[in-house]
Amino acid sequence: MPREAPAFRSGVVHNDYNTDGLNGKSDAVYDLVRGMLARGVPIHGVGFQAHLNTDFDVKGAQVQANLQRFRDLGLDVQLTEVDVQLRPARPEPGELARQAAVYRDLLRACLNVRCAGFITWGVTDFNSWRAGGKPLIFDDVYDPKLAFAALAQELAR
Q1: Whether the Cβ atoms of residue 99 and residue 130 lie closer than 8 Å to each other
Q2: Which CATH number fits domain 12-156: 3.20.20.80, 3.40.30.10, 3.90.180.10, 3.30.470.20?
Q3: What keywords were assigned to this record (predicted)?
């Protein structure tokens, strides 16, 4: 069954890093945004910069629950600047599979709460600000990595 795309609203959006999961900083942003809404500030969305690594556990960090609580305020949510850095300079196949799993789990959480956007922080590893960690879904020569396939499969579900 095709998913219905959420409507995107223009307006004020808060976008910050290290707020993707449930933690002290995301709690503070939640309180800030909830207070803004209570005062009539026209904020329409929250972006969650996801500069992560392969050790990140999407379920353990409770990313979906975090996104959902902002959606429950009536806000659009987006995962922005998504990249998942590898640890070794020459990654083993298992490390690329772990990177793909983190990307997949992020996208699944985003789709489950009807995110307004899922945005990678670049296209190829070569041009990434974190190039040494090979964080993106295309390698240095634009060949798709396992992470690309994981995202495509998740979107096809």
Answers
A1: no
A2: 3.20.20.80
A3: Carbohydrate metabolism, Glycosidase, Hydrolase, Polysaccharide degradation, Signal, Xylan degradation
Answer for the pair 84, 54: CB distance below 8 angstroms, yes or no.
yes
Domains of the chain by residue range = 12-156
- Cα–Cα distance, 31 to 144 (Å, whole number): 39
| pTM (predicted TM-score) | 0.90
Tens of pLDDT along 58-113?
999 999 999 999 999 999 999 999 999 998 767 777 999 999 999 999 999 999 99
Residue with tokens 């998913």: 3
Task: Give, in order, the Cα–Cα distances in Å from 112 to each of 24, 76, 116.
Answer: 23, 13, 11
Distance, in Å, from the CA atom of 30 to the CA atom of 12, rounded to the nearest integer, reads 15
